[in-house]
Design goal:
Chain lengths: ~375, ~375
């Protein structure tokens, strides 16, 4: 295994001091920022996440802020999801597409008010696309990256931990809604959301200076809850069917190929830049789509590139994420499979670095 | 030191198999792609680079291709450098700025023909900005990322090595010009350029399938030249004053702050999106600027975040890149310093993780 070479270009976060003190062992880079990947071990982190509560430095979910009279119009230009019914205080998962309908990002849009939005982005410089569109269409809107760094609190004891720091009212925040809470005199948006299926919150920490004070307050409050530093867990997120932009899909893919058709209202999303390109696929459906796949046998090696999926000697798809699941005793995997082979129960073969393995297309993720 | 966690999202390159076989020890991530940072050691790699010849996988210099009737117009919209005199076969270093004059990237533009350009980018998804602008202004141009991966041949024996593989004509390629050469029936653009001051070339490898065949041909031809796998070297690039986007400057900085005013023709670059914003700074000059700085004493620790530069108890700048130079026996550094303290010879202080160090602003880099 190779080491990561640190430099200013791989941006630190307001919580990096805490992450290092907690003994981070591995990093990835996400939006040109450090994202921890492992503390004790991926499997030990997984077990702990499912049992207790973890604090995740997900500052790399940078925000693109839209402010001004044209903010809502611009937001709708970016996505085929119809945003007309969205209220301030809501979070929407929004596929972002270019003029060809290709996915540029799969962020969560946070509506702060009619004329102020945050887009909490996956791994691509979406800021540049949004700024280019705003400039080219001469929209009356300011677009920038504010000093906001999300901190996720995930795991079955997340409610208990946050209630100790922010009060019991935090328990009332509903899924994909947010409310404002005070910390050291600052108002912070806290949403019930996060990149795991274990429940929890994301705190939009506005102002780097309160990063470590908040980090420390959470650890001080949660000692008996076994709170630990954690991070998005490869095994748990595959079990839960949480897609990863750049891994499971790229700008080659439409939202429909990614199984995100339910987040598209292509007919009514008037103004969306990719609308025309998506109308046909929205009506007729895609020819390939993301599927949960179970790979036979014992643990496969780490998947650092697409593995071909074949059937009858022909390439009919690829695996893009996989991990051995201790809870489900199989290699839980995410792949893109052609229409001819995507029915649940279909037997396929996967070209792993260790050789061919049998595999089965499943009807649902491991949830 | 933490390890890097590999996944498809951190893209491999056509040369990754060769890089691994050569024993890469460290990586960074650049344009969401793997970029090697060290093979033997940063200091041993440095010594070898200055003595022999190295093959560098710089695939992460992704290309943004502009094709079509509006390609030249779009290219000029992106940069304050006047491109009217640029001929096919030339490479221009071009600051790319947004509407505020902030640097979005500092790539090399490659003019293939009047209606076809490559932009060989530094670390930001410039593709998204260019696509957004092309879309918003409804330009008649195709913008995408082609299957082109630069391979750099750097070091004093670079001419000898390339002549063995491509013929003696390659010796005639002049600095920042390119010509076409054949390899296995494919025409490849080869430019005299690269991210070192030791001389050499960049081969624009078009078609991933010929990546490893070319890699292997270079190593087979250069055994007696002591050819080795290498990578941009931290020490050598600081000595040579080669800036790193994301390290030494960000979108907060104008080209003039980066000392790139000589690449700006702000008055005549009609159509450049950032022109209006830059007119004043072009005339009056910036209030802070990048400077070579020598930090006193023995080797400082690695610089993974900006270090404050102070004088008279006030913050007057920051160090963003530094390394111990065996050849110059000092900590060669790049920093941004305020006008009041940027004169050569000015004594300043640097807040390193090991404590305050004296330092001197220099008149030029170590070349």
């Amino acid at each position: 295994m190779a080491q990561i070479s640190l430099s200013r270009r791989l941006r630190r976060t307001p919580f990096s001091d805490g992450v290092e003190a907690a003994g981070v062992k591995g990093y990835t880079v996400y939006n040109r920022m450090l994202l921890p990947t492992v503390f004790e071990s991926v499997e030990a982190d997984y077990r702990h996440l499912k049992s207790h509560v973890q604090v995740w430095d997900v500052s790399c979910e940078r925000q693109v802020e839209l402010r001004g009279p044209d903010a809502a119009r611009l937001m709708q230009m970016l996505t085929p999801r119809d945003l007309r019914g969205m209220l301030p205080g809501q979070c929407f998962y929004v596929p972002i597409v270019d003029e060809t309908g290709g996915m540029l990002n799969d962020p969560v849009a946070v509506k702060l008010s009619e004329d102020r939005w945050w887009i909490s982005i996956a791994d691509s410089d979406l800021l540049l696309w949004v700024k280019g569109i705003a400039n080219g269409y001469r929209l009356d809107v300011l677009v920038d990256e504010p000093d906001v760094s999300p901190l996720a609190i995930q795991g079955p004891k997340a409610d208990d931990l946050l209630a100790r720091v922010f009060g019991d009212r935090v328990r009332d925040v509903r899924f994909f809604k947010f409310d404002k809470f005070e910390f050291e005199g600052r108002e912070l948006a806290i949403a019930r959301s996060g990149y795991s299926k274990q429940g929890g919150f994301e705190i939009y920490v506005e102002g780097s200076d309160i990063g470590m004070p908040l980090w420390n307050a959470l650890f001080a409050a949660g000692e008996d809850l076994h709170v630990r530093a954690g991070c998005p867990n490869l095994i748990e997120r595959i079990e839960g069917g949480l897609l990863s932009y750049g891994n499971d899909m790229t700008d080659d893919n439409t939202p429909h190929e990614c199984g995100l058709g339910k987040f598209c209202n292509t007919h009514t999303a008037i103004g969306c830049i990719g609308r025309d390109a998506l109308l046909r696929v929205a009506k007729e459906g895609p020819v390939q789509q993301i599927r949960p796949i179970s790979i036979d046998g014992d643990a496969v090696p780490p998947c650092d590139r697409p593995w071909s999926v074949v059937a009858g000697g022909k390439r009919i798809g690829q695996i893009t994420s996989t991990a051995w699941s201790p809870d489900f005793n199989t290699n839980v995997s995410i792949g893109m499979v052609k229409l001819s082979h995507w029915e649940p129960g279909t037997r396929i073969e996967v070209e792993t670095p260790d050789g061919m393995r049998g595999a089965t297309v499943r009807d649902k993720f491991w949830i």
